[in-house]
């Protein structure tokens, strides 16, 4: 799947977004990597589906978690569509989703699919384990798996 030059180039664009824009706050690069007609098919609640909504989300995450970064576990591409499985990490030092800073370290998994055309991200679909994030921030009760009979 990921062996064509088109797929490898698309993976490189998505990786740059994850590492440099999300992980380092390089918002000038955001402007280069995201196409003007970019569409987020799964914006976060209260977000908007265009570039402005995604940039606002990225900035909100970095404001709440100044050391926000991801460990990419794997990426695969089918032509121009790149799927990434990653774990985001950070320290909660700013307000997030109405939750005051806790100083807690967080980690939550995400799966993203991004379509890349002409070196720019044009579409996004994503699922994030926000329940786990909210649990770590103390906004939800900690759940434990049921005990197994001996």
From TrEMBL:
InterPro entries: Cyclase_SnoaL-like, NTF2-like_dom_sf. GO terms for biological process: polyketide metabolic process. It comes from the Bacteria. Transmembrane segments: none annotated. This is Ester cyclase. The lineage of its organism: Bacteria, Pseudomonadati, Pseudomonadota, Alphaproteobacteria, Rhodospirillales.
